From TrEMBL:
Keyword Transferase in annotation: no
Membrane spanning stretches: none
A Gene Ontology molecular function term of the record: metal ion binding
Keywords associated with the record: Cytoplasm, Iron, Metal-binding
Record's subcellular location: Cytoplasm
Name of the protein: Iron-sulfur cluster repair di-iron protein
Highest taxon above the source species: Bacteria
Domain Hemerythrin-like, first and last residues per copy: 87-229
Ribonucleoprotein keyword on record: no
Entry GO CC: cytoplasm
Record InterPro entries: Hemerythrin-like (IPR012312), RIC_family (IPR019903)
Organism name: Clostridium cellulovorans (strain ATCC 35296 / DSM 3052 / OCM 3 / 743B)
Length: 231
């Protein structure tokens, strides 16, 4: 069944129904993870975007997706435990593999290009602050939150739910903090556009920072807008 989106729809709900919407939202810098509870119209007004244009593009993309009838996992209909396993195996694994690599790269381009590009000092500082936040966050999720969610999934009592909700409130605040750092990185790097004198390592670093933004926003969306709401 074709759904007709409206500007009153919450951003996170749109991505839950149609995951492909995240590509459009990323293109127009519409926050669908930490800002997923806001209606589309609010984001449009805030960024002076043409709401009707975005809505038309969104609807066309969604209808094309529906016509192709491609299979996808509707995580809103899956058990929280299954989504937890997916988040750990995909998004947590990505961060554990990529954060050390990006850290090394940001230091390398700072050392080589810092004298000509002072913004790299801020890029290096912001990224390593983000890395510290994310690594601690992964531990909290894997060692504390996710085991309790799995326990609650099999034994839905008030005591377990209270434990989960307490941790969720703390981790949602951390999501917001991480999202803010990523947005600042995007601004400092001028949307990850490398300067004309950039070497290949410089290019790779900015490409990886862009990939980190995309993956982290998808990661936070799954938690804030689907997993946590299903508790």
């Amino acid at each position: 069944m074709i759904r007709n989106f409206s500007l009153s729809d919450k951003i996170g709900d749109v991505v839950t129904v149609f995951p492909g919407a995240s590509d459009l939202f990323l293109k127009y810098k519409i926050d669908f993870c930490c800002g997923g509870n806001r209606p589309l119209i609010e984001a449009m007004d805030e960024q002076n975007l043409d709401g009707n244009k975005i809505l038309t593009l969104l609807q066309a993309s969604y209808e094309e997706f529906q016509e192709k009838n491609e299979e996808f996992t509707d995580w809103a209909k899956e058990k929280p435990s299954k989504l937890v396993d997916y988040i750990v195996s995909v998004h947590h694994r990505y961060l554990k593999e990529e954060l050390p690599k990006i850290s090394e790269l940001t230091f390398k381009i700072l050392r080589v290009h810092g004298s000509n590009h002072e913004e790299l000092f801020k890029v290096h500082k912001l990224f390593n602050t983000l890395r510290t936040e994310l690594e601690g966050h992964l531990v909290k999720e894997e060692e504390f939150l996710f085991p309790i969610i799995k326990e609650y999934d099999t034994n839905r009592n008030d005591s377990n739910r209270e434990k989960v909700l307490k941790l969720i409130n703390e981790l949602e605040d951390e999501h917001t903090g991480a999202g803010d750092i990523i947005k600042e990185l995007r601004e400092v790097t001028e949307h990850y556009i490398v300067p004309k004198d950039a070497c290949r390592t410089f290019q790779v670093t900015y490409e990886k920072l862009r990939e980190l933004e995309i993956d982290t926003f998808q990661h936070i969306h799954l938690e804030n807008n689907i997993l946590f709401k299903n508790i």
